[in-house]
Amino acid sequence: MRTPIVAGNWKMHKTIAEAVELTRGIRRGVMDIKNVEVVLGPPFTALAAVREAIGPAKIGLAAQNMYFEEQGAFTGEISPLMLAELCQYVILGHSERRQYFGETDGGVNNKAKSALVHGLTPIICVGENLEQNQSGETETIVGGQVRAAFEGISADDASQIVVAYEPIWAIGTGLAAVPAEVNSIIGLSIRGALADLYGEGVSQSIRVQYGGSVKPDNMADFAILSEIDGALVGGASLKADSFVGIIKAASV
Fold it and tell me: Which one of 125, 153, 159, 238 is at 20 to 30 Å from 190 when CA atoms are compared?
């Protein structure tokens, strides 16, 4: 059985004080939830403060990005060596990173390998845009992103990675994908690609989240499906009540 994982990607939101307040609200709300792993992804500036605010609660912490080198003349970048002191997870290959900052499949692969070396668990994002979806290219695009991201990664390491399927056309648009279609895409394009690389056993061990306009009132429709293991949540993770509502819905 795979434990659902619900991660909040706060993106470029929240000052340190706001991040601490939000963390405390979420911590109070999830105290009695036992069967869902909860992860918070604040901006770099708030990682240390959120870590302190989490305290002894069983809540994971994620960075939103990282560079693959340990150190060097890379102005503005954050290394896995730095993050390993603060958090357990790192979000890699988000569509906004790919779209606005030119991230490539090869770059995501380099980052994933580096994260694993330093004990960080990658949450690797994959997903197609609307044109690709409507032209029937989803399996080619998403499967290709998965194969590229996992290239050269051992089966043991691969089983530790979390994949987030985020159809680009559903992120921040209010247009959540149809749950049954998401389940099918994950099964065919993501687990299918992983099975080709590692075999069915490893493919079935890897947790795959859904992300894209997830809300408390639609999470349960995703959570009941066999291929979906929680969610990577954007806008709805910025308020404690909505994020806690999603976590509760994922615990079905």
Answer: 238
| Catalytically annotated residue among 37, 94, 96, 128 | 94
Tabulate helix, strand, coil % of the chain (nearest 5).
50, 15, 35
Q: Is 94 labeled as catalytic in the residue annotation?
A: yes
Collapsing DSSP to helix, strand or coil, 79 comes out as coil
Phi, psi dihedrals of residue 69, rounded to the nearest 5°? -80, 150
Give me the residues of the chain with pLDDT under 50, please.
none
* Catalytic residue, candidates 37, 96, 103, 166: 166
For residues 186 and 171, what is the distance between their CA atoms, to the nearest angstrom? 17
Q: How far apart are CA 215 and CA 234, in angstroms?
A: 10
Q: On the CB side of 232, how many CA atoms lie within 13 Å of its CA?
A: 35
Name the token pair of 205.
């061990």
Would you state the pLDDT for residue 1? 82
In 3D space, the residue among 59, 114, 82 whose CA is nearest the CA of residue 243 turns out to be 59
Q: In whole angstroms, what is the distance from residue 130 CA to residue 167 CA?
A: 8
CB within 8 A of 175, min separation 6: which ones?
169, 212, 213
Tokens found for residue 119: 């004990």
Q: Which segments within the chain are labelled E, that is strand?
A: 5-9, 37-41, 59-63, 89-92, 121-126, 162-165, 207-210, 230-233
Is residue 166 annotated as part of the catalytic site, yes or no? yes
Count of domains observed in the chain: 1
pLDDT tens digits along 76-106: 999 999 999 999 999 999 999 999 999 999 9
